[in-house]
Amino acid sequence: MHFRMILHTLGTVLLLLALTMVFPLFWAIWDQSPGVTAFVVSILVTAGVGLLMKMVRPSGNLSRRDGFAIVGLGWLLIAGLGALPLYLSGVTPSYTDAFFESMSGFTTTGATILSNLEAVPREVLFWRSLSHWLGGMGIILLSLAIFPILPTGITLFQAEVPGLAPERILPRLKQTAVAMWLIYAALSLLQMVALSLAGLSFFESLIHTLGTVSTGGFSSRDLSVQAFANGTVEWVVTIFMFLSGVNFTLYYRLFRRKSLQRSFAATEFKWYGLIILSAAALIAYSLMAGMGFSPAAAVRHGLFQAVSVCTTTGFASANFDTWPSLAKGVLFLLMFVGGCTGSTAGSLKVARVVLLFKYALRRIRQTARPRLVIQTRFGETAVSDRILHETLSFFFLYIALFLGGVLTIMGTGEEMLTSISAAAAAIGNVGPGFAGVGPAANYAHLHPVAKWVLSFLMLAGRLEILTVLILLTPGFWRR
């Protein structure tokens, strides 16, 4: 382990984090808010820690283990220091709550302990949503795009960008990082314009754009998107949630006019669309049959919530906790699907879910005919047994952490449905769950132990589990 190089690199990341805090500071100055002091102190502390780390003279080259250490420790530091403005401004009653809110923001989970959001200072609301936007694509990936700091940055790219095998769309890693961030920024700009044309103010458009494109879900309203009672806004948000759940490689291929037909990403996109349309149809049927919704309203709410939960955004167009069991059951299952690999969405990802089903069918066929040789394919792509084994191990660890989280939360006194949905929403980076953590409630009432456990699940889900778990193994830190 090259600890000097690790500290030096983390210092660069923290300096970038301090720089991003300047934007909400400007907003606080504009509003003449008491929050100015909280952001000034937070910037000074974050920049000070970053400078101290940056002053450590680096030696040696980054190894694969060093890369995982930088990503894991970097995200902990980002969430920890990113919580300072929330705590120092008095918006959160304790540092535990501030850390939970910060981790939820940077991991694009969208679970909140805040209520009466309409009364929260605008600079704090902006910082929460900006943390979404930075965490959606990855602040370390942003560092790769801006600073030539990493001689072997491919490990950081693979550890931070979610998916089976992150694709470098350009030969150089820095070029790939820049291209991904440009696509991300372009989607954000398009949605801001669309929401403004739909009737939202600049501030509301900005907040909900940052929460949509990052698939985060933080809102400036307690009722989320439902508060606007604007069908056009809901359709705009639905479209951009869907677009944000797509593998960003597809956008680059479209822009460069490259073939999509036989690509892994294009096959996954087809399954992604099929899953969402099927889920939306079931939800719409449930709403019409169980609650008497008109076909138009059922389709609008069904599609909005199917896209919102499947992409792990977590926005709400209605209080879906009051919906019929079938609709809620479909939404719960979608929490374990997620968007496409290489998108800002969380959870298992569509490709993994499809591969798990394909592998199960293959085993069923081979049980009857053991000598039968079957190649698992994903569209035109042949999938190696190594990828299948990695998918199976990821799924096992994902479910193991989920169940561990459920039992721990239940151990703090929460009832079963709240505990199950909270753990699923945290590790899947979804945000709202059901019952005590549904869209009409929040996570404020949970025991502090539950909040720390959920914060861990959020981080594990965002960094694809192994990046976090590997830091907990003693052998990882040995020279």
Terminal CA distance: 6 Å
Q: How many strands, which pairing sense, and closed or not: the largest β-sheet?
A: 2 strands, antiparallel
Mean pLDDT figure: 90
Q: Taking Cα atoms only, what radius of gyration do you get, to the nearest Å?
A: 22 Å
Q: What is the molecular shape?
A: globular
Strand content: under 5%
Strand runs, count: 2
Low-confidence stretches: none
**Structural class based on helices, strands and sheet pairing:** mainly alpha
Question: What are its keywords?
Answer:
two-stranded antiparallel sheet; mainly alpha; 1% strand; single chain; 479 residues; globular
Describe the structure concisely for a colleague.
The protein is an all-alpha fold. 63% of the residues lie in helices and 1% in strands.
